[in-house]
Amino acid sequence: MEDVWSVLLRVGAAWVTLVFTLIVLxxxxxxxLGISEAYLWxxxxxxxxxTIRIEKGVKKPQPQIKTSATNGIIERxxxxxxxxxxxxxxxxxxxxxxxxxxxxxxxxxxxDEVTQRFSSxxxxxxxxxxxxxxxxxxxxxxxxxxxxxxxxVRYCFLLPLRITLAAIGITSMIVGTxxxxxxxxxxxxxxxxxxxxxxxxxxxxxxxxxxxHYHNKENKPQKGGICxxxxxxxxxxxxxxxxxxxxxxxxxxxxxxGVIQRATVRACPHVWFERSEVKDRHLVTKRLREHVxxxxxxxxxxxxxxxxxxxxxxxxxxxxSFEIGGTIYPVAIKYDPQFGDAFWNSSKYNIVSYLLxxxxxxxxxxxxxxxxxxxxxxGEDAVQFANRxxxxxxxxxxxxxxxxxxxxxxxxxxxxxxEEQQKNFSKMLVRNGSVGSLSAGTESD
Length: 445
Known about the structure:
This protein is globular. It contains 14 helices and nine strands. By secondary structure, it is an alpha/beta fold. Helix content is 50%, strand content 9%.
């Protein structure tokens, strides 16, 4: 029995030594040995081969289906209500007007623009991870063997490796920030804090087999500014801190997340709020303004959508982030779903299940675009400013821009949306004289 434990200890020591030598140490130094690039190249060739096998395995030609930018199944007519309902030389209300609203209602029931953003993006071709498309079926024995080998590699090699790296990264973050937090406030403490955050973030990115392409680095957020980005996953923060340090904003948590928050806030001026404080908008805005006013503090990182979207679109930005003042640094994040789905469907998976799915995927590949800083223009309110920043991020990331609130992920549609449509229809009738005609007809009767 002692011999067995001795062998296990030696194997474990060799495993940790290899991980430290080939991954942790190069990550800490910001050096790449080319292992990730070689792994990604092999993976791309394998997926290309699998795609060809799938196409050859389909005996019957598949009809060409017109796909929209939103992968929808309905070809929507975006003609405005005024142009579709109102015809020349017509001023009276007609019962046929209700067909416009009936059609819009049927479209929303079959496929609305909101709820589909809270489910994983549909893949064009199978990525040997999961069958996310009804068109995927048994093709050949060789493809099945490759899939089985992939399962073994992902669960028996990549998963233990990634768990080891994640444990090293999290432990280093807690220990490092706790030690740095004991130092008095000075430029040395700030420098060491940034080193710890960058080093640990790089290790955590390696734990995801992350390959990140950063563009336009000359536009990186500066101290005293506010960085806003579209939100797909909790790992968005790790993706960004891999290339620079930020002051995080969020609610105080318990458990392991709470331990990390308490450790990091000692070394870096993160802004954590108690649950009771989050509802106090004035208090939140005050603390954020105080942070932005200090040009020596790290830029604040905020995700104005307030919830995770499946990386096909950008939804409404909450105006609170744009009432603070200061310079806004927009950042667009776009993941490649071919290698792994980074989207967190929090209504379907808890954080543990989500991390397990991430760590058993092939890799996390994404592009990050730093965009030119933006400031609030004269006469522009917070909502207009938020919409302008959202539009810029959507264009840069190739995402669909939607005006809907991400809060619809868990809440019902507000009555004000329905009342707005009713008001628009009423205004149209008044403008065309329908109300006057109806009143005159009633009096003559």
